[in-house]
Specification:
The protein has 136 residues and is an alpha+beta fold. A hairpin with a 2-residue loop joins β4 and β5.
């Protein structure tokens, strides 16, 4: 999927054991909503997770956190930084987690739509969801 046609900003950062996730994500612009992809070890590595930030309310405003805040929140009920550290310790093949992020042009597209398209593309290729996505 060519995600770039839906975005107005993009970038990536990485996380290794001992890193501060807040420090690693500090360059993500404030107030942007969008999607993110976690990959194993490299920018072309295995996709571990696909997620979004930004839930739209009926009147068109955003209910949920912007992208940087969402990335620094929780996953599986624990701080995402701790979740990453746990996963790296459990899987010796993971040296680092690459975080690709895309800020969506929210005047035109819903972050949930782009997340769904990314997950559909992954599902079409692999007949399953990424390993850390439990459901959709």
């Amino acid at each position: 999927m060519n995600i770039e046609k839906y975005t107005k900003a993009k970038g990536y950062c990485s996380f290794r054991l001992g890193d501060s996730l807040r420090k690693q994500t500090k360059d993500i612009p404030d107030g942007g909503y969008g999607v993110y992809i976690f990959r194993k070890n490299t920018e072309i590595g295995d996709i571990l997770y696909i997620g979004k930030s930004g839930t739209i309310l009926q009147k068109g405003s955003f209910k949920s956190q912007d992208l940087r805040k969402r990335l620094n929140n929780k996953q599986d009920g624990i701080k995402r930084e701790d979740f990453f550290a746990k996963k790296i310790k459990e899987d010796t093949k993971i040296e680092q987690i690459i975080i690709e992020w895309y800020i969506i042009d929210e005047r035109k597209y819903l972050p949930g739509l782009i997340e769904a398209l990314l997950l559909q593309d992954y599902f079409t290729q692999h007949s399953c969801l990424p390993i850390w996505n439990k459901e959709f």
